[in-house]
Amino acid sequence: NYEQVIIDLENAGFAEITTKKNKDLVTGFITKDGSVKKVSINGDSDFEEGDMFPEEAAVVVTYHTFEDKD
After folding, report:
1. pLDDT of res. 69
2. Inter-residue contact 35 to 2 (CB < 8 Å)
3. Taking a C-beta distance cutoff of 8 angstroms, is the pair 13, 59 a contact?
4. What is the CA angle 22-58-50, rounded to 5?
């Protein structure tokens, strides 16, 4: 869940964390609402455990959700 990822990133020292909705869900059976699609740090989403980034790096957590209903 994206909320847990945000908590983990904050615990790692990151302060500039934003979220982005990917409104692509229809039923939510296969991919759950709030599941993480991508995490990018300073625009880079190709990183591995152990990679180092400055604490002030811009982090964007993109997650799956349903289209807003009017």
Report:
1. 56
2. yes
3. no
4. 100
